[in-house]
Structure formats: structure tokens, C-alpha cells
Amino acid sequence: MTALTWNDITTARERIAPFAHVTPIMTSASIDQECASRVFFKCENFQRSGSFKFRGAVNAVAALAPAARARGVVTHSSGNHGQALALAAREFGITAYIVIPENAPRVKLAAARAYGAHVVTCAPTQAAREQEAERIVRETGAVFVDSHDDPLVIAGQGTAAVELLNDAGTLDAVLVPVGGGGLISGTAIAVHHLSPTTRVIGVEPAGADDAYRGMRAGKRITNFVPNTVADGLRTSLGELNFAIIRKAVDDIVLADDEDILAAMRLIWTRMKIVVEPSSAIALVPLLTGAVRGRRIGIIITGGNVDFAGAGVGM
Amino acid sequence: MTALTWNDITTARERIAPFAHVTPIMTSASIDQECASRVFFKCENFQRSGSFKFRGAVNAVAALAPAARARGVVTHSSGNHGQALALAAREFGITAYIVIPENAPRVKLAAARAYGAHVVTCAPTQAAREQEAERIVRETGAVFVDSHDDPLVIAGQGTAAVELLNDAGTLDAVLVPVGGGGLISGTAIAVHHLSPTTRVIGVEPAGADDAYRGMRAGKRITNFVPNTVADGLRTSLGELNFAIIRKAVDDIVLADDEDILAAMRLIWTRMKIVVEPSSAIALVPLLTGAVRGRRIGIIITGGNVDFAGAGVGM
């Protein structure tokens, strides 16, 4: 396992500074009242490409040696990582090959193309995605950038928590959505360095509970079929991510789809910001009372919603 | 006609400062590109009560003599003005009586109640609303606060444009949605004082084009049946509003519902903020090319959307 430390996060901060936004922190008096906490929302929905994934992607691209980078980058991601890598590649004037299952929401294909990526569709299976990405690496020499199981990606994602702690001050806990584990592993490293008494708690869909079960079983669980509205959290934990989570994450709690959607509507209605279901999940434990604390940080991971597909009739 | 000047707006600024937010200005590189303009969005969707209406309402309530204020305030508004007046009354610990048609979106009733208002429902006609409000004034001594045809309300609404010009710098034009005319008349007074070369352009639904036709006819048009998705803009212009608009507004342009909804989805998708159709309308002339300019200000009036009613299936 690659060792990953606070130094990697400070290096990532310097590397991404010319590209990424320092996103705002928002608060809501009425949500505070419902949660009986002071809640600090780190708004990565306002990050470039619409999610925190840009931090990790641009860190990975910027860290490549120029000769390797010139051959381009490739990933298979139906979602935010694909868009983020496409934008990161565009910043460096290189090609991003994004392998996307043919049944992905059209907003995601369109967004990757809008960022200038070379989009390759494939059958909607993990095997087909991996094979297609391997073929592109073989034929073009492009560098594969994983969405979460990559130390540079993890270090980049950890920079959001640094900004959160710098701006919000002391926090009792930071709540983070868990999918592949890139964000929570970077967050755990950052928070435990900067504020060792702040708890890092992952929130995972009940229908994709591999981190929850893996923590309890003491081994990584990969053989499961996700079933959740939080489409960004269907991925299983990576190896590096699982190792960091076991060591540095205080707890994983679950949220069911109904509560995720209620939290999303609450954020839209009260805060007037667009957040994905995969973001809103982090608020659920505060609304249900599963997690309590005086001052809580939440990373709002992204705001890429397919309004046409979601049936917004207006 | 009550004379209304720049002094009324500076007084309003001082009066509302302890209550209202100075809302942020947002920009979007991708929307700038589509419009071939630098567009500054004054985000009143982040204003307290979810719309700019709080500025006028709290100015009107704060200006009342304490003895009169103690008897409460009343208005008939199915929408944002009702919520704004409810919140303004709560700030002063007085009763707000809000008359709402029984067929109004439930989010609006719930919001007025959540702000502690005494909500009175009535038949969905203008006459029923006015009669009910008059009855409450008669029986309680509460002060009626109109949503737009009131100098204190207009002066309060004008404060948003002051902040916009202060923060964004020189602008070629400011685009403002037109309903009852409270916002655009306050905006026109503020902009023409601070930046006489900046054009003030109203944007009105094609299905509620009383300001557009009234400007051309030289008289206020009140006898029309609105038909537009922009529910906040169905009101007809007030007398005071029409007088100010004739004198100080450079142009009124129209937008049809299809373009309004497309602009709303564009703002939601690109900027990750929740805006009402009645807000998004102001972007339409830039997207269609009806209005052009190098630097344009847009007042995003509010973000109160009934997500349940809108059929957001997610």
C-alpha cells in the first residue's frame, strides 16, 4: 500500500490552487434548528465541473510528468469523476478519454463532451468498462486515472476538508458521503492532522453498504449489487481507500433512499442550492438524530442533477 | 402620486441593514460564453424568506410608528411577498395576517405559517382577497402592506440594485423581472441615480404583458388574464409603479414560457442554484439575443419553488 500523509495533501493544495475554486461555506438557520446543531456546508457543488472530483482529477493530471501527460488520460466513470477529469485535461490541453456506459444519464455524457473529452460508450458492466479503458491505454499510451483508488486523487479530495476546517473553525464532526472512498479517505487524513478531536463519519446508502459491512467484518467487501438513488455512491471501496478508512474513520452510518431524498429536497428548498442525492445523504444522520454535535461540517459533494431525467415538469 | 427619490432608497438601506442579507453576486463562465456577455447575477434567492421581497416588506414594517406597528400588518399575497411580510413581522414580534387563495401552492402556505403568520385562506379571486384583507384591517387595526404599489416597499426593493452596482461595478444594463412593478421601479430609481448610462430593462412574460403594452399605449393596463408559468409575475402593475416605469425604465421586453423554463434549467444546471421561473426570465433576453451588452446585471429575484408540486420525481 502506498503511504499517504498530510504532506501529500499540502502538496495537492499547492498543485490545484491555480485551477480549483476555494468553494464557499454556507449555513442555514432553519436547518440548524431542525438538527439542533450549527451545520457548515462546504459547497463543492460550486466547484468547477460541479463536484469535488475536480480536486483529485486536476491533482492527478498536474502531477504527471509532461511527456506522459501529453499522451492523455483515461478513466471509466459514468459520473462526476469523468467530467472532472475531462475538465482537468482541458486545462492542460491534453486529451481525456472517458469510458461511459451507454445507459448513463445523458446530462453526464453531454457534460463530458462539453468539456472537450473524447467520450467512448461501452456496455453497462464493470468488465466492459475496464476492458475498454485498458484498450485505450494500450493503444494510445494515455494514463489511467482511477476515480478513487489512487493516492493523488485521494490527496486532492482531502483539500476540501482543509478549507472547511480553516473557514469554519473547530468542529465536533465532519460528515462525508461514502462511495468509492476517495473523499472520505482524503478527508480523514486531513482532519486527523488538523483537528484530532474532530470525528470523521462516513454516510453510506443502506443499499450500497459495503463500507459499513467491511468495517465490521474487517475485510473489504466487493461482491454486492448496489441499489440506491444515490448514483454517485454505488461504487465499491477501493483497496487503498479501505485501508485508510479502517485506520482513520471513526464510524460509518447508513441512510435509506427515502431519507436521502427528503434531505435533498430540504436543502434545495431552504438553502436554494442544487445538490445531488449523493451529496444530501451527509445531512441525513443529523436529521434522524443518528449523529449529534454542536458544530458539524458537511461536505456537499456535487450538484450534477439530470433535471430532464428527473422529471422536473416545470 | 407620492414622490419617490434616491433619498428614500438610502433611508431604506439603513433601515433594513439589521434584518436583510447583503446577498452574493455569482457569475458563470459557461453562461457568459452562451450570452457573449459578462453576466452578474444578484442572488436574491439567498435573501431571507427566499426572495428580494423581504427588503420591501421589512422596510415597510420598520418604518411604521411603534403604536401602529403593534396592531400587526396584513397583505393578500399568494407568494413571496406574503412570506416576506410574515418574516418581517416576526422580526418585530408582531402579527402578520396573510390572505392566501385556497388554491395556492402548498409550499407557500406552509412557508407563511412557518414564519409564524396568521394565514387566512379565501376564494381564488382578486375581489375575495381584497375583501378579506379589508375585513382584517377593519377588525384588527392591522396596517395593510401592498406587495408593490407602496413607496416604502419600492424603496426597499431598490436596495438590491444598489448592492449590485456597488459590487459589480459599471454595467451596460440591468435586467429585472416585471410583475407588479415593485422591483423594477425601485431598481430604476437606484440605477439612474448611481449610474445614469446603465439601461434598466424589464423582462415580462408574454402571457402577462401589461407593462409592455402599457408602456406603448401610454396608460396602465389592468384588464387582462395572465397565462404564464412565471407565477410571481401574474400581478398587474400598480399605479405608482407604472408612473415610475414610464419615466425611468428604458425598455420592456417579453419572454415566452418555453424560454423561461429553458433559462431556469440552465441556471440550475450550470450555477447549481435554485431559482424560480419568475427569476430565470431575466436571463432570457441575453440567451435569445434580444438584449446585448458587455457587462449585464441580472436580479435573481427568488428561489421559492414547490418541488413536490413541480413533480420532481427524484
State the helix count of chain A: 14
What series of H and E elements makes up the topology of chain A? HEHEHHEHEHEHEHEHEHHEHHHE
- Write down the Rg of chain A: 18 Å
Average of pLDDT of chain A: 94
CATH domain class name of the largest domain in chain A: Alpha Beta
Number of distinct beta strands of chain A: 10
Cα end-to-end separation of chain A: 50 Å
The greatest interface here is:
A-B, 27 and 27 residues
Q: Main sheet of chain A: which strands, in order across?
A: 1-2-10-7-8-9
Which residue ranges of chain A are poorly predicted, with pLDDT under 50 across at least 5 consecutive positions? Answer: none
CATH topology of the largest domain in chain A: Rossmann fold
The count of domains of chain A is 2
The class by helix and strand makeup of chain A works out as: alpha/beta
Largest sheet of chain A: 6 strands, mixed
Strand content of chain A: 15-25%
CATH architecture level-2 label of the largest domain in chain A: 3-Layer(aba) Sandwich
Q: What share of residues of chain A is helical? A: 40-55%
Shape of chain A: globular
Oligomeric assembly: homodimer
